[in-house]
Amino acid sequence: MLVTWKYRDREKFLDTLDPRARWITSFFVLFSIIQFWDLRYMLFFFGLAMVQYFMTGLKWVETKRVWTFILILVVVIVGLNAILSGRGGPSEVQTSGEGIVWDTNFTIPLVNWAFHPNITVGKLTFAITQIFRMLSSAVLFFIIPWTMDPRLYGVTFGGMGLPYRFAFSMDLSFRFVPSLARDFGVTLDAQRARGYGIESIEGNPFQMIRRIAPLIVPIVMNSIINGEDITNAMDLRCFGQEERTWIEKLTYRQRDYMWIGLGAAIFIGSLILNWGFDAGGFWVPEFMHALAK
To answer: Whole-angstrom Cα distance, residue 63 to residue 52?
Structure first.
């Protein structure tokens, strides 16, 4: 049987909201975030995302692995790419060569490829802005698996007007990851009981892959078998022949409309600032210029 994320009702305000209201509001805020390049606006949206995070009642021990993954992904990959190349941002980030913080020249041996990477004040500011942009977007959504009843995934997406096939696919997708984690834990315990030491894996990449094979192969095979079982069960129930109904029923309440209204107000306000007042363009703080050579 498929398992779910470690969801539990924490009796917080967000737990009482209709899941559709939470998704709709999160998308409103997300569409607001992507309209701006100004670091000050990113800090505002990051603050909003963190307020919602603390409203969930989640503890650090529950989400520390996700936080670690997100920080590594955002800071190391997104941040370094933005610092070194400035790609993905406004044109003035790449075209401006003023305010050099660091630059160098080097050539790759054998192929003689010459590189001239440099870090400017604009690229550094853009990198910080991108980091807060990604963190704000991630915090909005990664809390959902811990704070949303897994029985409501399908009916939530179906209730938002999405095709029932897509809604059911999303339901299965949210359940797949924890199922895979469960299979990994069971396989690891079984191999340890047979004397296999996961902690002793070392050597070059090829040796490590060969040593991890006793874990990866059973997990992959079990995932394929489970997928076939689910497919067969859906075929036996004639899934796809006609539109299905959902056992659970969702009903909007006043607090849900208020929560959606808050998200809509943020989105409309962002449109007015961006399109009406041309606000939110790329901005470099004055103190950043002091870093230049």
So the answer is: 14
